[in-house]
Specification:
This protein is of the alpha+beta class. It is 36% helix and 22% strand. The strands form 5 sheets. Strands 3, 4, 5, 6, 7, 8 and 9 form a 7-stranded mixed β-sheet that branches. A two-stranded antiparallel sheet has the order 1-2. Strand 7 (106-117) and strand 8 form a beta hairpin. Helix 6 (222-246) runs antiparallel to helix 9 (335-349) and helix 7 (250-260) runs antiparallel to helix 8 (265-277). The termini are far apart. GO terms for molecular function: dipeptidyl-peptidase activity; metal ion binding. Residues 37-179 form the Nudix hydrolase domain. Pfam families: NUDIX (PF00293).
Protein backbone atom coordinates (compact mmCIF):
# COMPACT_ATOMS: atom_id res chain seq x y z
CA UNK A 1 0.00 0.00 0.00
CA UNK A 2 2.85 2.35 0.83
CA UNK A 3 3.54 3.52 -2.74
CA UNK A 4 -0.03 4.08 -3.83
CA UNK A 5 0.33 7.86 -4.03
CA UNK A 6 1.17 9.22 -7.44
CA UNK A 7 4.66 10.33 -8.43
CA UNK A 8 3.84 14.03 -8.58
CA UNK A 9 2.27 14.10 -5.10
CA UNK A 10 5.12 14.99 -2.77
CA UNK A 11 3.88 15.17 0.80
CA UNK A 12 5.74 15.08 4.09
CA UNK A 13 5.32 12.18 6.49
CA UNK A 14 6.29 11.76 10.12
CA UNK A 15 9.20 9.42 10.76
CA UNK A 16 8.62 6.62 13.27
CA UNK A 17 10.96 4.46 15.28
CA UNK A 18 11.16 0.74 14.60
CA UNK A 19 8.58 0.35 17.38
CA UNK A 20 6.16 2.72 15.63
CA UNK A 21 6.69 5.68 17.97
CA UNK A 22 6.91 9.27 16.74
CA UNK A 23 10.35 10.83 16.42
CA UNK A 24 9.24 14.42 15.84
CA UNK A 25 10.94 14.39 12.44
CA UNK A 26 9.18 14.61 9.07
CA UNK A 27 10.59 14.06 5.58
CA UNK A 28 9.32 14.27 1.99
CA UNK A 29 7.68 11.11 0.71
CA UNK A 30 10.36 10.34 -1.88
CA UNK A 31 13.14 10.65 0.69
CA UNK A 32 11.35 8.34 3.13
CA UNK A 33 10.98 5.60 0.54
CA UNK A 34 14.52 6.10 -0.72
CA UNK A 35 16.02 5.78 2.77
CA UNK A 36 13.57 3.17 4.02
CA UNK A 37 12.34 5.24 6.98
CA UNK A 38 9.51 3.93 9.13
CA UNK A 39 6.23 5.87 8.75
CA UNK A 40 2.47 5.41 9.17
CA UNK A 41 -0.43 4.65 6.84
CA UNK A 42 -4.05 3.54 6.95
CA UNK A 43 -6.14 0.80 5.34
CA UNK A 44 -9.91 1.26 5.17
CA UNK A 45 -12.29 -1.59 4.38
CA UNK A 46 -15.98 -1.09 3.66
CA UNK A 47 -17.97 -4.15 4.71
CA UNK A 48 -21.62 -4.74 3.75
CA UNK A 49 -23.24 -6.59 6.63
CA UNK A 50 -26.34 -7.93 4.87
CA UNK A 51 -24.36 -9.57 2.06
CA UNK A 52 -21.12 -10.28 3.99
CA UNK A 53 -19.09 -8.57 1.28
CA UNK A 54 -16.02 -6.36 1.23
CA UNK A 55 -15.60 -3.48 -1.20
CA UNK A 56 -12.46 -3.59 -3.36
CA UNK A 57 -11.05 -0.96 -5.67
CA UNK A 58 -9.02 -1.52 -8.81
CA UNK A 59 -5.98 0.71 -9.19
CA UNK A 60 -5.23 2.47 -12.48
CA UNK A 61 -2.38 1.04 -14.55
CA UNK A 62 0.11 3.88 -14.09
CA UNK A 63 0.39 3.57 -10.30
CA UNK A 64 3.75 2.68 -8.75
CA UNK A 65 2.47 -0.68 -7.59
CA UNK A 66 -0.86 -2.45 -7.48
CA UNK A 67 -1.24 -1.40 -11.12
CA UNK A 68 -4.48 -2.79 -12.48
CA UNK A 69 -4.98 -4.97 -9.38
CA UNK A 70 -7.87 -5.24 -6.95
CA UNK A 71 -7.00 -3.95 -3.49
CA UNK A 72 -8.27 -2.34 -0.27
CA UNK A 73 -11.39 -0.14 -0.33
CA UNK A 74 -9.17 2.86 0.38
CA UNK A 75 -5.70 3.54 1.73
CA UNK A 76 -3.13 6.28 2.17
CA UNK A 77 -0.18 7.70 4.04
CA UNK A 78 -0.60 9.71 7.23
CA UNK A 79 0.76 13.16 6.40
CA UNK A 80 2.71 15.17 8.94
CA UNK A 81 0.27 16.87 11.30
CA UNK A 82 -2.61 14.49 10.53
CA UNK A 83 -4.02 11.61 12.55
CA UNK A 84 -4.73 8.15 11.12
CA UNK A 85 -8.48 8.76 11.45
CA UNK A 86 -8.29 12.03 9.51
CA UNK A 87 -6.32 10.20 6.84
CA UNK A 88 -8.85 7.36 6.72
CA UNK A 89 -11.78 9.75 6.28
CA UNK A 90 -10.00 11.84 3.67
CA UNK A 91 -8.90 8.78 1.71
CA UNK A 92 -12.45 7.45 1.37
CA UNK A 93 -13.70 10.86 0.29
CA UNK A 94 -10.96 11.53 -2.26
CA UNK A 95 -10.75 8.06 -3.78
CA UNK A 96 -14.40 6.92 -3.66
CA UNK A 97 -16.44 10.03 -2.91
CA UNK A 98 -17.66 8.57 0.39
CA UNK A 99 -17.78 11.09 3.24
CA UNK A 100 -18.54 9.49 6.61
CA UNK A 101 -18.20 10.81 10.19
CA UNK A 102 -15.67 9.61 12.76
CA UNK A 103 -18.02 7.13 14.39
CA UNK A 104 -18.25 5.05 11.20
CA UNK A 105 -14.60 4.00 11.43
CA UNK A 106 -13.67 1.05 13.64
CA UNK A 107 -9.97 0.60 14.34
CA UNK A 108 -9.38 -3.16 14.20
CA UNK A 109 -5.61 -3.50 14.54
CA UNK A 110 -2.35 -2.20 13.19
CA UNK A 111 0.36 -4.12 11.41
CA UNK A 112 3.84 -3.59 10.07
CA UNK A 113 4.43 -3.89 6.33
CA UNK A 114 7.93 -4.02 4.86
CA UNK A 115 8.82 -4.48 1.23
CA UNK A 116 11.43 -3.47 -1.32
CA UNK A 117 10.51 -2.88 -4.97
CA UNK A 118 12.02 -1.42 -8.12
CA UNK A 119 15.32 -3.25 -7.60
CA UNK A 120 15.90 -1.73 -4.20
CA UNK A 121 15.11 1.85 -5.19
CA UNK A 122 11.81 1.88 -3.29
CA UNK A 123 11.82 0.76 0.36
CA UNK A 124 8.50 0.77 2.16
CA UNK A 125 8.45 0.33 5.95
CA UNK A 126 4.98 1.24 7.07
CA UNK A 127 2.85 0.86 10.20
CA UNK A 128 -0.75 0.61 9.01
CA UNK A 129 -3.87 1.24 11.08
CA UNK A 130 -6.61 -0.98 9.69
CA UNK A 131 -10.15 0.45 9.86
CA UNK A 132 -13.48 -1.23 9.14
CA UNK A 133 -16.58 0.67 8.03
CA UNK A 134 -19.67 -1.53 8.44
CA UNK A 135 -22.65 -0.60 6.30
CA UNK A 136 -26.00 -2.30 6.51
CA UNK A 137 -26.13 -3.02 2.77
CA UNK A 138 -23.79 -2.54 -0.20
CA UNK A 139 -23.45 1.02 -1.47
CA UNK A 140 -24.83 1.24 -5.04
CA UNK A 141 -22.10 1.46 -7.67
CA UNK A 142 -23.56 4.66 -9.10
CA UNK A 143 -23.23 6.36 -5.69
CA UNK A 144 -19.43 6.30 -5.84
CA UNK A 145 -17.38 9.15 -7.30
CA UNK A 146 -14.10 7.54 -8.28
CA UNK A 147 -10.84 9.47 -8.32
CA UNK A 148 -9.98 8.95 -11.97
CA UNK A 149 -6.25 9.42 -11.53
CA UNK A 150 -6.05 6.53 -9.06
CA UNK A 151 -9.14 4.33 -9.10
CA UNK A 152 -10.32 2.46 -12.17
CA UNK A 153 -13.30 0.58 -10.69
CA UNK A 154 -14.87 -0.78 -7.52
CA UNK A 155 -16.70 -4.01 -6.77
CA UNK A 156 -18.08 -6.01 -3.86
CA UNK A 157 -16.84 -9.53 -3.19
CA UNK A 158 -17.85 -12.01 -0.50
CA UNK A 159 -15.45 -12.32 2.42
CA UNK A 160 -15.00 -16.04 1.87
CA UNK A 161 -14.39 -15.74 -1.87
CA UNK A 162 -11.87 -12.94 -1.37
CA UNK A 163 -10.07 -14.92 1.31
CA UNK A 164 -9.93 -17.93 -1.03
CA UNK A 165 -8.45 -15.83 -3.85
CA UNK A 166 -5.77 -14.40 -1.56
CA UNK A 167 -4.82 -17.85 -0.28
CA UNK A 168 -4.47 -19.05 -3.88
CA UNK A 169 -2.37 -16.00 -4.75
CA UNK A 170 -4.65 -14.94 -7.60
CA UNK A 171 -2.67 -12.55 -9.86
CA UNK A 172 -5.55 -10.07 -10.19
CA UNK A 173 -5.44 -9.20 -6.48
CA UNK A 174 -2.82 -7.44 -4.38
CA UNK A 175 -1.36 -10.19 -2.15
CA UNK A 176 -1.77 -10.26 1.64
CA UNK A 177 -0.33 -12.88 3.96
CA UNK A 178 -3.35 -14.26 5.79
CA UNK A 179 -1.13 -16.43 7.97
CA UNK A 180 0.38 -13.24 9.35
CA UNK A 181 -1.14 -10.20 11.01
CA UNK A 182 -3.54 -9.44 8.17
CA UNK A 183 -5.43 -12.65 8.76
CA UNK A 184 -7.01 -10.84 11.72
CA UNK A 185 -9.33 -8.97 9.36
CA UNK A 186 -11.03 -12.15 8.21
CA UNK A 187 -10.94 -13.76 11.65
CA UNK A 188 -12.68 -10.77 13.24
CA UNK A 189 -15.43 -10.59 10.62
CA UNK A 190 -16.04 -14.35 10.63
CA UNK A 191 -16.22 -14.62 14.42
CA UNK A 192 -18.42 -11.54 14.67
CA UNK A 193 -21.17 -13.00 12.50
CA UNK A 194 -21.18 -16.60 13.66
CA UNK A 195 -24.72 -17.83 14.33
CA UNK A 196 -23.95 -19.62 17.61
CA UNK A 197 -26.37 -17.49 19.61
CA UNK A 198 -26.76 -20.13 22.34
CA UNK A 199 -23.05 -19.94 23.14
CA UNK A 200 -23.18 -16.14 23.14
CA UNK A 201 -26.14 -16.19 25.55
CA UNK A 202 -24.34 -18.56 27.93
CA UNK A 203 -21.20 -16.44 27.86
CA UNK A 204 -23.07 -13.24 28.61
CA UNK A 205 -25.20 -14.89 31.30
CA UNK A 206 -22.02 -16.04 33.07
CA UNK A 207 -20.77 -12.48 33.05
CA UNK A 208 -24.04 -11.24 34.52
CA UNK A 209 -24.04 -13.92 37.21
CA UNK A 210 -20.90 -12.39 38.69
CA UNK A 211 -23.06 -9.55 39.96
CA UNK A 212 -25.45 -10.22 42.85
CA UNK A 213 -28.53 -8.00 43.24
CA UNK A 214 -29.05 -6.67 46.77
CA UNK A 215 -32.36 -5.38 48.10
CA UNK A 216 -32.51 -2.61 50.70
CA UNK A 217 -35.23 -2.70 53.32
CA UNK A 218 -35.21 0.68 55.03
CA UNK A 219 -37.73 3.26 56.14
CA UNK A 220 -37.60 6.85 54.93
CA UNK A 221 -39.47 9.90 56.13
CA UNK A 222 -41.62 11.83 53.67
CA UNK A 223 -38.98 14.55 53.69
CA UNK A 224 -36.24 12.06 52.80
CA UNK A 225 -38.38 10.68 49.98
CA UNK A 226 -38.87 14.14 48.48
CA UNK A 227 -35.15 14.83 48.72
CA UNK A 228 -34.42 11.41 47.22
CA UNK A 229 -36.53 12.17 44.13
CA UNK A 230 -34.49 15.30 43.42
CA UNK A 231 -31.21 13.48 44.04
CA UNK A 232 -32.17 10.72 41.61
CA UNK A 233 -32.99 13.33 38.96
CA UNK A 234 -29.60 14.96 39.52
CA UNK A 235 -27.94 11.55 39.44
CA UNK A 236 -29.42 10.81 36.02
CA UNK A 237 -27.88 14.01 34.67
CA UNK A 238 -24.53 12.93 36.09
CA UNK A 239 -25.10 9.53 34.49
CA UNK A 240 -25.43 11.18 31.09
CA UNK A 241 -22.20 13.06 31.68
CA UNK A 242 -20.44 9.83 32.60
CA UNK A 243 -21.72 8.03 29.50
CA UNK A 244 -20.24 10.77 27.33
CA UNK A 245 -16.97 10.79 29.23
CA UNK A 246 -16.45 7.07 28.72
CA UNK A 247 -17.04 7.17 24.96
CA UNK A 248 -18.35 9.89 22.66
CA UNK A 249 -20.87 7.60 20.89
CA UNK A 250 -22.10 5.92 24.07
CA UNK A 251 -25.46 7.68 23.95
CA UNK A 252 -26.24 6.27 20.49
CA UNK A 253 -25.35 2.75 21.56
CA UNK A 254 -27.36 3.02 24.78
CA UNK A 255 -30.48 4.12 22.90
CA UNK A 256 -30.04 1.37 20.31
CA UNK A 257 -29.52 -1.45 22.82
CA UNK A 258 -32.53 -0.25 24.78
CA UNK A 259 -34.71 -0.28 21.65
CA UNK A 260 -33.52 -3.76 20.70
CA UNK A 261 -33.72 -5.24 24.21
CA UNK A 262 -37.19 -6.77 23.76
CA UNK A 263 -36.37 -8.60 20.53
CA UNK A 264 -34.65 -11.65 22.00
CA UNK A 265 -33.09 -13.12 25.12
CA UNK A 266 -29.64 -12.24 23.83
CA UNK A 267 -30.65 -8.63 23.21
CA UNK A 268 -32.03 -8.37 26.74
CA UNK A 269 -28.81 -9.76 28.22
CA UNK A 270 -26.74 -7.27 26.24
CA UNK A 271 -28.88 -4.43 27.56
CA UNK A 272 -28.65 -5.60 31.18
CA UNK A 273 -24.89 -6.01 31.05
CA UNK A 274 -24.49 -2.68 29.30
CA UNK A 275 -26.39 -0.95 32.12
CA UNK A 276 -23.99 -2.44 34.66
CA UNK A 277 -20.87 -1.35 32.78
CA UNK A 278 -22.34 1.82 31.26
CA UNK A 279 -20.38 1.03 28.11
CA UNK A 280 -19.77 -1.86 25.69
CA UNK A 281 -16.63 -2.83 27.65
CA UNK A 282 -16.69 -5.30 30.52
CA UNK A 283 -15.05 -3.87 33.64
CA UNK A 284 -14.37 -7.30 35.15
CA UNK A 285 -12.70 -8.53 31.95
CA UNK A 286 -9.99 -5.88 31.62
CA UNK A 287 -12.32 -3.68 29.58
CA UNK A 288 -12.73 -6.04 26.65
CA UNK A 289 -15.83 -5.45 24.55
CA UNK A 290 -18.71 -7.84 25.32
CA UNK A 291 -20.56 -6.73 22.18
CA UNK A 292 -19.20 -5.78 18.77
CA UNK A 293 -19.91 -3.17 16.15
CA UNK A 294 -22.31 -5.73 14.66
CA UNK A 295 -24.48 -5.18 17.76
CA UNK A 296 -24.14 -1.41 17.61
CA UNK A 297 -26.51 1.38 16.66
CA UNK A 298 -27.37 2.01 13.03
CA UNK A 299 -27.22 5.51 11.56
CA UNK A 300 -28.48 6.86 8.25
CA UNK A 301 -26.16 9.35 6.55
CA UNK A 302 -27.83 10.44 3.29
CA UNK A 303 -25.13 12.99 2.41
CA UNK A 304 -22.29 10.45 2.51
CA UNK A 305 -22.28 9.97 -1.29
CA UNK A 306 -23.83 11.36 -4.43
CA UNK A 307 -27.59 10.87 -4.51
CA UNK A 308 -29.08 7.84 -6.24
CA UNK A 309 -32.74 7.67 -7.19
CA UNK A 310 -34.64 5.23 -4.99
CA UNK A 311 -31.81 4.87 -2.46
CA UNK A 312 -32.02 6.68 0.87
CA UNK A 313 -28.29 6.78 1.55
CA UNK A 314 -25.56 5.02 3.53
CA UNK A 315 -26.72 3.21 6.66
CA UNK A 316 -23.75 2.36 8.82
CA UNK A 317 -23.07 0.81 12.20
CA UNK A 318 -21.69 3.10 14.90
CA UNK A 319 -18.21 1.71 15.45
CA UNK A 320 -16.41 1.27 18.73
CA UNK A 321 -12.98 -0.20 19.47
CA UNK A 322 -12.69 -3.72 20.83
CA UNK A 323 -10.63 -2.38 23.72
CA UNK A 324 -11.79 0.56 25.78
CA UNK A 325 -10.15 3.91 24.90
CA UNK A 326 -7.50 4.84 27.47
CA UNK A 327 -8.70 8.31 28.48
CA UNK A 328 -11.97 9.86 29.63
CA UNK A 329 -13.45 12.63 27.49
CA UNK A 330 -14.38 16.08 28.72
CA UNK A 331 -17.92 16.32 29.99
CA UNK A 332 -20.55 18.26 28.02
CA UNK A 333 -20.89 21.92 29.02
CA UNK A 334 -23.81 23.13 31.17
CA UNK A 335 -25.13 19.68 32.09
CA UNK A 336 -23.68 19.98 35.59
CA UNK A 337 -25.48 23.32 35.98
CA UNK A 338 -28.78 21.46 35.56
CA UNK A 339 -27.73 19.11 38.36
CA UNK A 340 -26.74 22.11 40.51
CA UNK A 341 -30.29 23.46 40.39
CA UNK A 342 -31.69 20.13 41.59
CA UNK A 343 -29.13 19.89 44.40
CA UNK A 344 -30.03 23.37 45.61
CA UNK A 345 -33.71 22.40 45.72
CA UNK A 346 -32.88 19.21 47.63
CA UNK A 347 -30.71 21.21 50.04
CA UNK A 348 -33.58 23.60 50.69
CA UNK A 349 -35.92 20.68 51.49
CA UNK A 350 -33.79 18.69 53.92
CA UNK A 351 -33.61 19.50 57.63
CA UNK A 352 -30.36 17.56 58.08
CA UNK A 353 -27.69 20.25 58.68
CA UNK A 354 -24.81 18.23 57.24
CA UNK A 355 -26.77 17.12 54.17
CA UNK A 356 -28.01 20.67 53.59
CA UNK A 357 -24.47 22.01 53.74
CA UNK A 358 -23.16 19.31 51.42
CA UNK A 359 -25.87 19.72 48.77
CA UNK A 360 -25.62 23.52 48.69
CA UNK A 361 -21.82 23.48 48.57
CA UNK A 362 -21.83 20.82 45.83
CA UNK A 363 -24.30 22.87 43.76
CA UNK A 364 -22.01 25.88 44.14
CA UNK A 365 -19.01 23.74 43.15
CA UNK A 366 -20.73 22.63 39.92
CA UNK A 367 -21.05 26.30 38.96
CA UNK A 368 -17.60 27.46 40.08
CA UNK A 369 -15.51 24.31 39.46
CA UNK A 370 -14.03 24.77 42.95
CA UNK A 371 -14.76 21.57 44.88
CA UNK A 372 -12.77 22.07 48.10
CA UNK A 373 -15.64 23.17 50.37
CA UNK A 374 -18.00 20.52 49.01
CA UNK A 375 -15.39 17.80 49.53
CA UNK A 376 -14.97 18.84 53.17
CA UNK A 377 -18.76 18.83 53.57
CA UNK A 378 -18.90 15.37 52.00
CA UNK A 379 -16.41 13.98 54.52
CA UNK A 380 -18.45 15.48 57.38
CA UNK A 381 -21.77 14.18 56.04
CA UNK A 382 -23.89 12.54 58.77
CA UNK A 383 -27.30 11.83 57.29
CA UNK A 384 -29.76 9.05 56.55
CA UNK A 385 -29.11 9.80 52.88
CA UNK A 386 -25.47 9.26 51.94
CA UNK A 387 -24.76 11.06 48.67
CA UNK A 388 -21.70 10.98 46.41
CA UNK A 389 -22.10 13.13 43.32
CA UNK A 390 -19.65 14.92 41.04
CA UNK A 391 -16.11 14.37 39.73
CA UNK A 392 -14.18 12.13 42.11
CA UNK A 393 -12.29 9.10 40.80
CA UNK A 394 -9.80 9.11 37.93
CA UNK A 395 -10.04 5.41 37.02
CA UNK A 396 -11.54 6.16 33.61
CA UNK A 397 -8.46 8.14 32.61
CA UNK A 398 -6.14 5.19 32.12
CA UNK A 399 -3.86 7.35 29.99
CA UNK A 400 -2.64 9.70 32.74
CA UNK A 401 -4.94 9.26 35.74
CA UNK A 402 -5.55 13.02 35.83
CA UNK A 403 -9.11 13.52 34.65
CA UNK A 404 -11.89 12.77 37.13
CA UNK A 405 -15.06 11.14 35.84
CA UNK A 406 -18.46 12.33 37.03
CA UNK A 407 -20.34 9.82 39.15
CA UNK A 408 -23.42 9.63 41.37
CA UNK A 409 -24.17 7.21 44.21
CA UNK A 410 -27.14 7.59 46.51
CA UNK A 411 -26.98 5.44 49.61
CA UNK A 412 -29.43 4.95 52.46
CA UNK A 413 -27.83 4.37 55.82
CA UNK A 414 -28.91 1.23 57.64
CA UNK A 415 -28.70 2.40 61.26
CA UNK A 416 -29.06 -1.10 62.74
CA UNK A 417 -26.28 -2.57 60.61
CA UNK A 418 -24.15 0.52 61.22
CA UNK A 419 -24.50 0.06 64.99
CA UNK A 420 -23.48 -3.59 64.70
CA UNK A 421 -20.46 -2.65 62.64
CA UNK A 422 -19.53 0.03 65.16
CA UNK A 423 -19.70 -2.54 67.97
CA UNK A 424 -17.35 -4.77 66.02
CA UNK A 425 -15.04 -1.85 65.32
CA UNK A 426 -14.86 -0.89 68.98
CA UNK A 427 -13.29 -4.26 69.79
CA UNK A 428 -10.55 -4.13 67.19
Amino acid sequence: MGDRDELHEEGRFNICTKAGLKTGISKPRSVIHKHGDYHRGVHVWIFAESTQQLLLQKRVDHQHSSSGLWDISSAGHVSAGDTPLITARRGLLEELGVNLPDDAFELLFDFMEERVTYRGRFMDKEFNDVYLVTTLAPIPMEAFTLQGSKVLAVKYISVEEYKHLLVKGHPAYVPYNLDGQYGQLFDIITKRYQDNVVEKILTLQKKLNRYAPVSLDVELTEEDKEVMVLLIQAGRIIDDIFYNQVWYSNASLREWLNQQSQLSEFDMLKWKYYLINKSPWSTLDENEAFVTTADSAMKLFPEATRKVVGWKGVEYKVAFPMLKPPGANFYPPDMDKMAAELLNKAGDLTTSPSLKRFLHSKAKAFLSNDYYDSDIAWMELDSKLDVTIGPYETYEDVLFGYKAAFEAFIGIRDDKATAQLQLFGDHL
